[in-house]
Amino acid sequence: MELNEVYEYARDHMEKSLDVLKRDFGTLRTGRVTTAVVDHIKVDYYGAPTPLNQVATITATDATTIVIAPWDKGLLGEIERAIQEANIGVNPNNDGDVIKLFFPPMTMEQRQAEGKRAKQFGEKAKIAIRNVRRDANDKIKKMAKEKVITEDEEKRGLDEVQKITDEFVKKVDDLVKAKEQEIMKV
User: Fold this and answer.
1) 98: left (phi over 0), alpha (psi -120 to 50) or beta
2) DSSP string, 109-139
3) Which of 177, 65, 158 is nearest to 119 (CA)?
4) What is the largest CA-CA distance in the chain?
5) pTM to 2 decimal places
6) Exposure b/e, 62-96, CB count within 10 A at least 16 = b
7) What is the pLDDT confidence band of residue 34, given thresholds at 50, 70 and 90?
8) How many CB atoms within 10 Å of residue 125?
9) How far is CA 131 from CA 5, 73, 118, 176, 185, in A?
10) Does residue 116 contact residue 110 with C-beta atoms inside 8 Å?
11) 119-134, pLDDT tens digit by residue?
12) Of 61, 137, 155, 171, which sits with the fewest C-beta atoms within 10 Å of its C-beta?
């Protein structure tokens, strides 16, 4: 293993931490309701827990309404039950054809709470990035101990890993800031 491989490892894994952060952000509610709110819901489909988006068409018809149209009308009751159990803050309205979810406009308190959750997701991502940094640094120190690289190369390697870490921490901060602005925008 050489230093470039360690840098590559660090970048790849830190990039994955950013991907997880973006996925986590999808669960946050902003001024507009998104179908991501129901992404984690599973429906009992002939005895197998199946993601909701695999048994129905899900659309956000406007800023506060999600419509769920099951492909099999016999699933309406199951979908309704799954949504109630998921506790997403609204009750499903079943009209016999589709299920509608009406989300009330967000209050300032709800916006602030979602902003806090965005910060928590950011902190989680930073911890993951720092763990990757630690692993990369351990690999570099091991290489130096085994005399694969010189002490100077070790120092340069550790500095480079820190630069990569700083770059990704800044990306996390930027993403969190942008998400907070999106949440607070009325």
Assistant:
1) beta
2) HHHHHHHHHHHHHHHHHHHHHHHHHHHHHHH
3) 177
4) 72
5) 0.74
6) eebebbbebeeeebbebbbebbeeeebebebeeee
7) confident
8) 26
9) 17, 47, 20, 19, 33
10) no
11) 999 999 999 999 999 9
12) 61
| Contact status, residue 140 vs residue 149, Cβ threshold 8 Å | yes
The percentage of the chain sitting over the pLDDT mark of 90, rounded to a whole number, equals 60
Tokens 């997701």 correspond to 121
Length of the chain counted residue by residue: 186
Mean pLDDT over all residues of the chain?
A: 91
Task: Tell me how far apart the alpha carbons of residues 41 and 54 are, in angstroms, rounded to a whole number.
Answer: 11
Tokens, residue 135:
């692993």
Domains of the chain: 3-27+107-184 (1.10.132.20), 35-102 (3.30.1360.40)
Give residue-wise pLDDT tens across range 71-128.
Answer: 988 888 889 989 888 888 788 999 989 999 998 888 899 889 999 999 999 999 999 9
